[in-house]
Every structure is written in structure tokens, then in C-alpha cells.
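worker-3 :: picked AAA domain-containing protein
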Amino acid sequence: MKNPGKLFFFCGKMGAGKSTKSKEVAAEHNAVLLSEDEWLAAHFPDQIKSFDDYIQYSNRIKPFVRKHVQSLLCVGVNVVMDFPANTVKQRSWFASLCSEISCEHALLYLDVSDDQCLSQIAKRRVEQLERAHFDTESVFHHVTRYFEAPSSDEGLNIVRVE
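worker-3 :: C-alpha cells ->
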């Protein structure tokens, strides 16, 4: 059997730079990049209007994404997932995905201040007009209430990026 690929995934507050970093990591590791935003936009166009909608539709695609990612990893392809791993529950999903097929992983934790995140969000609102309705300071504060920094007791290979 071929050695499995390595999975890279990300933790960081909204606006921390997870999508930008995911592109860099994919290029660096010759990996397939999967973006949750792209999957959701393709499967549920114009249906995500609120944070609750996002949670609902994100959960709907997870079984398909899991099987797809595991298939890629099992044939030796490195995979970068631009999907949030911002809560213990989200990270346990990634951990189980990896443990089921015994593949290596790296959780890149983008440890960025709220001020830096808000600055990036303001910039993104101007550069990506389609995100302006969602990329707001109030949404940032709402989403940040759920954020849980990763800890060593989760059993993950954490790479801190500051």
C-alpha cells in the first residue's frame, strides 16, 4: 500500500488569514486544496444568508468531503483543507478523519490579534464585494464567541503561526 498523504488544516479567528495561508501551504507541499467556501457556493448557491445557514450547510457537506479527502490521502496525495478547525468539535472531526486511515496531519494555528483580524476583514470587504454582507465587525464578534484555541491535550500536531 502506498504511504498516505498528509492532511493540513487550519485554526484561526475570522480574518486571521486561513485562506491565504492554505494557498501557500498547498503550493509548498504540492497538495490538493479544498475550500469550504467553494464547496458551499457550488452546492448551495445563494442559500447561505446567516451564520445558522452556514452551520447547517457546512454539516451537510461533511460526509461527502470526508470520503473524498480520505480517498485522496489513501493514494498518497497531500490535502490542504481550507475548512475551519476553530472549535474542539471541529478539530475532533479532522482528527477522526485522519485516524480512520492512519495519515499524518498538521493543524496550523494562526494566532492573530482581534485588531489584525478586523483590519483584514475590512480590507476583504473592499476587495471581495460578494463577502461584504457577511464580513462585518458584528459577525466577527458573533463568530469569535465560539472560537476555542487548540490545546496539546487534543492530540493534534499543532504548528503555531504568528
